[in-house]
Batch of 4 targets.
Target 1
Amino acid sequence: MTKKKKEIILKALKAAFPHTVPILAGFLFLGITYGIYMNISGFSFIYPLLMSLLVFAGSVEFVAVNMLLGAFNPLQALFLTLMINARHLFYGIAMLDKYQNVGLKKFYLIFGMCDESFSINYSAHVPYDVDKGWFMFFVTLLNHLYWVIGATLGGIFGSFITFNTQGLEFVMPALFVVIFLEQWLKEKDHTSSVLGILLSIIALALFGEDNFIIPSMIAILITLTILRKQIEKRGGWS
Amino acid sequence: MSITQQIITIAMVVLGTVLTRFLPFLIFPKGKETPPYVKYLGLALPGAIFGMLVVYSLKSIDLTIAPYGAAEFLGVLAVVLLHLWKRQMLVSIAGGTIVYMILVQMVF
């Protein structure tokens, strides 16, 4: 590797790290929780280690513990995963342009596109002199690393961890509120943001916390499609 | 469940996750012109997605029993006010989380 390339990569890492600090706190905590959960469910730390490395999608990993404890049903495992992770389809559509032209890194960026990595990579203002591809790569990699380390630690030490972390899980909603707010301050037209909140709350009330994501996604798609002309005009895209 | 069955189950979870992440990129590859409708969705969706993620991350609040989500509401309020004031992501997140932790550990 040339000296110049090394500098570019190092600069991107330095620029990316501060954006991932909230995730460092959140993922270590949630990862440890997940590892402990696997530990008390009777699995060796190898399981949370491999799962967090290969899946890297928090909610489905918790659900997978029940799949592993229940009867063998691979098709159900596949469909349940598709249902829980369907929201990634939206992330992909939003990232079609941003993840283009970053070389082979693209495959890892898509592989590691969890809620948090997507949110940061979509909304972060990358300084003009920092390589965007490497910046997004390190955001994804660092988040992935925090999650794997947390899950493995939880799996190894299980229930030995006793400090009072009650409430620390709030870093995740706090992160999403900040990103939502940034989007709000940036956009010309708030229709989509308002719809996202409103339709999700309605779906949550109607279908309950385990089943509301797919109905909200469908409702959002339909409404955005019906309102396309107005939103394009007000958003300044047409 | 045998080890083989466990491996197959985990492989299915990996496959399902990878599919949902790669599908849009497989359907609309680089060289091909992305349909205008999908481009529109790419621009219009993020606002709605972030709204949905806010609700998703707070979905377990129970409004029917005391304190009726008061800690979450005050935590979110702290995040919003801090962010409008300083516009520093880390300050807003850390501040809001500390407010929330104090509330759930000492107040409610």
Target 2
Amino acid sequence: MSLEVFFVAIISSMLINNVVLMRFLGVCPFLGVSKKTESAIGMSAAVMFVMVVASFVTYLLYYYVLEPVGITYISTIAFILIIASLVQLVEMFIKKFSKKLYKGLGIYLPLIVTNCAILGVAEGNIAQGYATDYGVLSGLWVATTSAFGAALGFGLVMFLFSAIRERLDHTDVPPAWKGLPVSLVTAGIMAMAFLGLGGMV
Amino acid sequence: MAENKKAVKNPNQKKKKKATQFDNFFKGVVRENPIFVFLLGLCPALAVTNTLETALGMGVLVIFVLTASNLVVSLIKNLIPDQIQIPAYIVVIATFVTIVGLLTEAYAFELHQALGIFIPLIVVNCLIMGRATAYASKNGPFNSIIDGVGMGVGFMLAMMLIGVSREILATGAITFGRYLPLPFEVSLIDTDMYMFNMEVFVGPAGGFIMIGVFLAIFTAIGNYNKRKKAQARQAWIEQKKKEAAERKKRKAMEEAGDSA
Amino acid sequence: MLYKLKIALTLLIVGLLSGGAIVFVHTMTEDRIQENRELAELEDYQEIFPDMASAEEEDIDHDVIDRRAKIYDADDEQIGEIYRGHDTNNFGDITVLVGITMDFEIKQVLVSQTENTPNYYQDMPLENLAGQATDDITYDTNTGATASYNSVEMITDYAVELFYEFQDVDLRSSELQALQTIYGEAADDYIEHFTFEDEAVHTEYRVIDENESTLGYAYDLDIDGELVMLGFTPDDEFLGIASDDDSHDDLSDVFADFEDLEGDMIEDIDVDALEGEQAIIDAFAFIQDLVEDTERIEEEYLVRYRETDEGYVITGFAEGFNAMNVIEVTLSDDGEITDIELVRTDDTDDYVEDYIEPNLDAFDGESDLDADDALDTFAGATGTGESIVNVIVAALDYYPVLSGALEMIDHDVLNFREDYYDDEGDLIGLLYRGEAEGFNATNVFDVVIDEDGAIYSIEIVETNDTEEYLDDYIIPNLEDFIGETDVTQDETDDAFAGASETGDSVYDMLSATLEYHAEGGDE
């Protein structure tokens, strides 16, 4: 397996199949936490951390526990519990070791449990069939890389969108369009722009 | 005098009325519509609303999960220690989602394929967790069911509204029977004259734009209502002031008359 | 403590209940889900073969086609096969199913999945493909969805190819079948060497084996619409007569009349005394005339030559703009062009009259020609002009062979040798051209042996080996062998350590040259 595979995995999950704009995952935090660039970055960092770890763990759980036992149909419930406890763990961990980091990320962590991007990417890794394409163990690395790329993509659009919204706040928009409506249309235009990256890989 | 009171109603009066079961149901459809008012569950609202059928299907699944989890949560709310409320609710919701997923795959396979990853993602739909913690854990089973159905229907209607708009704009037709397990397949409003085929509405961009447009429309309606209400209130205040002034005047006249 | 126990217990009960509920629903729906999943796979098949009752799928290892499904009807009779292929074009991935019936017809071609623009791929005229015979598929090139359609075309072609392979169908042409009857399995392919116009035979074929060396020459003719092939060795010995495998048996009676001739040289056959099918007798007479005073040439563009009092007449054959052109180049004894004649052409008359024929004289007196310059002569009729120039250049290149200055060598390694003159024009010795296997591919060498039988120079004329290796290990060390009259394997191993396989090819070349030179160099 060449490095190219990882490069392609990052590019395609970050830009081409962008979680927010193409796969509609994590739209709630995308709209909710993107009012300020600062909080957008904080949220993205927290998402990146949890998404990569969650993908890694859920992939292992799926292929080394659920599949051998033959209960892959409970993957949803298993994954969400893993993610919930993972978030709890990470919160405890950060709280204990870095007060500063906790101040920065801590408030976003509880929100992440209901961020469908995490569960969506974890489920997507399985649906994508990395294990059949590359073998179970190699697939793990591709899946994790791809999750990292997805998180980068999430961060990228969060950052871009928050910057746009900060400017939108100071723009004279018709009263009915003020706030979310115009933001959503902006997001639609962003999605159109990302559509153009489709032929890249 | 009595005529005057009838002409201008007190706009605050309605709130004092006791909420009926119907109100409990109806609030989810309009006043507390999960998508257009609370912006909950936007992911599926964007992802599976490219046709009316998928939107409807997703809506039905959400109604089921929401009602069932609301019921169970309201039943077990007293047995669950506060500390593990959230994990326990997650397990309950995830269980129903898994069940719904299995049933869909067995009895509505096309719908299952079309909704794909968004069936398991019902688990993290903020709407369901939100209702479980905010309503079902504080109310009885019957009210919880009503609340679940109402919220679910509101969610479904909103989804369908987006779905029908997107499907018509994109294809000029509405198709039934392609995804839902219906014994027939039929296209409504299928006009060959339609030549725009705006495929952007099938894709992600169209989803965002469509919801944005609807939000703007509802905001405009809301603004209009607010303005009317404010006007009504203003009119009521004016009326009261006038009445008071009249009363004062009459009193003064009466006093004057008495003294006279 | 009690509180924690209560928490654990509650979680356990909740988990158990939820697990139980899920397992219950799972067992209830398991079969149906399995069935649905299988059905979903088969649904597309059903669309192609409505009579399908069951299918047997297998994954195949192929770049484009990844699945083959045998389709059976209700009586378990195979009614066709479906091949699934993927391609990625500029607009995304596309998956195509190609259904082929057992009667070698395309049943239907279906786009089962694609990211291509729906409006385009939906308008593709795929229904035109249905019902076409697999050996002659006409694709509709007037489609508005070129990218998608190209993918469909490619996948369909591969599917048909694989289908033939799986059905074990003889893909040999009827020509090859006939040739293999005459020359045996060794006949690997043939080159249409020359086509005749309105003669007793149609085409002269050069029959080659898998190493592309000539097994012989064959000529074909029609008898009642059936292909009949006459085969000869390179020395014009008659080898046999045959038709393709599916021809009617009555031809074998016809052929029987000529069996006695097998092993005879063509010039020894008394054509007038032959009895039997007149067409075949005519063919013999024609071939006899043809080979009587001409010799064959085994070069690209050249067919044969004949010697005249003034020099040589070389006949060449090249593809022009529209069709084949036959050109005769007359060379003097000194190798100068004295005449060029366009014997036959299928190209447009106007072109030939206006641009070709007036210019043919321009080459008279030339003995060396640059192809690019020569092409300018025929500006206006480039296609035909190019074919003529190809023949002229090839004829001039062949002149040294005719004059004896260049001698073709029949040898594993060596190709030819010619006199070698240095820059001052003094005769040094003989240059040997040969080919030997290197690490990656064949290397072509020029080795000059001087009059004392020693190596005068070594040059690598053509190679596919890695340049770094050649520059670092081979070329600097070639000098070591200059002046040698004998080369051993050990010496080359030492000299070319680091590039042993290419070094071996140098050894093969040098030893072959020295050996050949010592044995027959001075005849």
Target 3
Amino acid sequence: MRVSLFVTCLVDQLRPEVGLATAELLERAGCSVEFDPRQTCCGQPAFNSGYRSEARAVARTLIEALEGAEAVVTPSGSCCAMTRRYRELFAGEPEWRARGEALAAKTFELAAFLVDRLEVTALGARVAQRVSWHDSCHGLRELGLRAAPRALLARVAGLELVEAGLREECCGFGGTFAVKHDAISVAMADRKIDELESLGIDVVTGADLSCLMQLGGRLERRGSRIRALHFAELIAGGLPALAAAAEEPAR
Amino acid sequence: MIHGLKAREFDRLSREALGDDIQRGAIGKATDLIRGRRGAAVARLPEWEELRERARAVKAHTLARLDHYLLQFVERAEAAGVVVHWASDATDATEIITGLVAEAGERPIVKAKSMVTEEIGLNHALEARGLRPVETDLGEWIQQLAGEPPSHIIVPAIHKTQAQIARLFAEQLGSAEDASAEELTAIARRILRQEFADAAIGISGVNFAVAETGSFLLLENEGNIRLTTSLPRLHLAVMGIEKLVPRLSDLEVFLRLLPRSGTGQHLTSYQSIFTGPAPGRGAAPRRGRGGGPGGAPPPARRHRRRALVGDELRRSSLQCIRCGACLNVCPVYRQIGGHAYGWVYPGPIGAVLTPQLAGIHEAKALPLASSLGGACEEGCPVKIALPEVLRDLGREAGEAQGEAPGGEGFGCGRWAWFMRTPRRYRWALRLARLGFPLGKRLGPFRRWAEQRELPRPAARSFRDQWKERSR
């Protein structure tokens, strides 16, 4: 199957390794992978601030870039969920609404695509670590993303999945919320991190880089030994990705 | 002027609340307990989602034809012997009520728990006339003793520990500092019984009003509402216009949703339906203002709730049945509690209602005080699209800031311009990368970096690396 990557602006600029790992996993699953550089962003930052016409302008760029693809895969539950809102976002523009809906219908979050669409779970990975999964809000509530990533982790040799009681609690990111109300945002992260530390895990992983930046940034500041890594990187890179994360110089 | 409104101070209040570990502990413990019970109660109803949809549809339908149902309700209620007064705002409402209380001879007043009376600052208005309304819901009574507004819609003293309540009672009532929960409730019962016996006026809210019969329904667990509405000679029920449902049979769905959502109960201990005064109890004499036969609801320009009715998204906020479920699942409420929201309604529904009922200029920080994770919407029994309304209000708050450079609106406009073509996108990111070392010390980045490490832009973007990979 030919798959077009929607890497998301955050991955493109902050952690390209996640995009490369996504391509790597899709190839291991037998897909041929393309990337169309006309893509920028899904429009969510403006949408979340209530600026719908700005969000539409950006969404049109994404629709134009990717609507020709056979299938679109993105390493973000949140950005994938955003495409599902194009229908409502373009309610007043029938043509764009139809194009937005068509794109949403063939856009998938990476884990959901691998497990539910391709029915692939074994990706030949080995990671001898205690790992906890963070269920990001948008992936969980808007895409129902729960079983698919766990099915992938279950097939990683050596990996022990440790379920946190607070796995479905918000990490405190929330876009501008993280800076507008930074103290509350950090308190929310701390609540989760306190539990993760008590579980003695090595890695917290998830399907959204934004949440992992929030948890990872706070973990690092607290001097924690726990690493926050996108699951694509964890599975594709295995131990080398972990070593790289551990060796990243303190900033 | 809205009594007790402090939503402008959200930043200060929330920071203070974050420092109160005892309060955070109390709220966490109590909301976990309620969430557990709610989850168990909901799990036993396979038709839960269907009930939510029915409730949403009833409320949405009623709000879309609100004037029709309001007039029908008033006609039927008056036919049953109720006297109806219209109020267009808080001042209007408190003046009508204090007028009725004066006519009744300013006698002792007991109150059942009611959010709308908190909203209009009724106790404050009555106290200003030298009266002493006594809250009879245990939690509300505790809050009244403490001189604080409620911090949760259905559990007013949720932020207090038992030890704090024992100390409060010791200070105010002279009881033992280490009184047990049983002793504390026995003290409350003894004092409140005397208040009920002495009261001549009972004031309550309304949970639901039925247009076809002119009836209204009150739900409770403590029995204090039964006493408040039956022992005193005069019962004043205060109701927001959004409390209506068309038919008596519509109550079925709400009776199943509200107790389960609020406390995880299958049903509250008491449900009281009032259709006119009890036999032998005459209605109070009608007062002139607004209450005459054929009287119409006040115009929308003076009445904030009516102003909301015209907008389909905004009026969904009026579907709220005040169950508090969104508070219990809100990760922000859990950290900061109810008082930080600066008015009567806390949590997600407060962030939605306060800017709309008190004005966006009074509550600009509230719509942004949400991570938009959607736990509130998932928990809402009437399916209010809370994140969607918050986003919409967020834009209004941004515009209220004046769209200044650096403001939300200005930022979104610039951002969207850069994101519209891949070329501009690459320029923007090149600029961002150059500016990063400096930007780290500025504005949003600094606020991020104060307590968290800031992610550093990658040396080479994905798109650059991909170009090489494909070569």
Target 4
Amino acid sequence: MDILIVMCVGILIGKFLVPKKAKTANEYLSLLSTFLLIFAMGVTLGSDDNFFAELSALGITSFLFFLIPTVLSILLVYLLTRHFMQKKDSDAQGRAEKK
Amino acid sequence: MMVLLTILSLLLGLACGFYDVQNSVITLISGNTDLILYLLMFSVGISIGMHKGIVQKMKEYHIRIFIIPIGIIAGSLLGGVLCSLLVHIPVAQGTAIASGMGWYSLAGSTIGNIAGAQLGSVAFLSNLMREIFSFFIIPFLALKCNNYTCIAPAGATSEDTTLPMILKYTNEETVVLSVLNGIICSFFVPILISFCLGFA
């Protein structure tokens, strides 16, 4: 919940206070935060004594439980959005091309 | 480039954690992940705020904003059923694992508590893989499918950790849909896990 409040504050500041030329700097800020979060996740996992043992013992089963649900989610979302939302997407692309 | 830097960040973090590298910078980063996440969400908010007409676009979607989470939840549950048949475990347990939709910490701990450490570990690892592999799948999907499909692998993580990847490879409109999807999926993760394990 609190992250949504922070994001809403960001939206208001982005809408009313941030100049257009700061767009690139803001993109770098979000990339830097992402890399730091992934790095921190790596540190947590790497320092867990059981992590690598679990990965080798249950790796293949876990991989299946990642792969199949993810692929089916992608497939269903693609089919559903192509059928129900694609028109908007192509409209948006059309508008972008005109600009 | 983005994918390469993502892999490097993860590998560097794993190495630092594994070899117990201690210095003030690493302690500062790993001890303040909440603050970094706030910074990230603030930055994402600024991106959305700078994009004109986003509210109007969301109004145009109306009830269709539920299409993406419905597809993700249905695909995950269906995948859980298939996996349980493949590895010969009860369907209720398989669907519970897949219901994590990338939220590895919650899925791992709740399933571990209710159904045992081994199943909890599979839930943790598979959902962790979903989050990590999403970083690499999103750029591919942006090229080969449509913007909306980029949200699918991210599942419940599409409102936070994988959001910058979606922002980088799609547009602000998709980012807003991604945040909404993340909220809806995250809401359903604990409900679906409890519901599925109720049948075990």
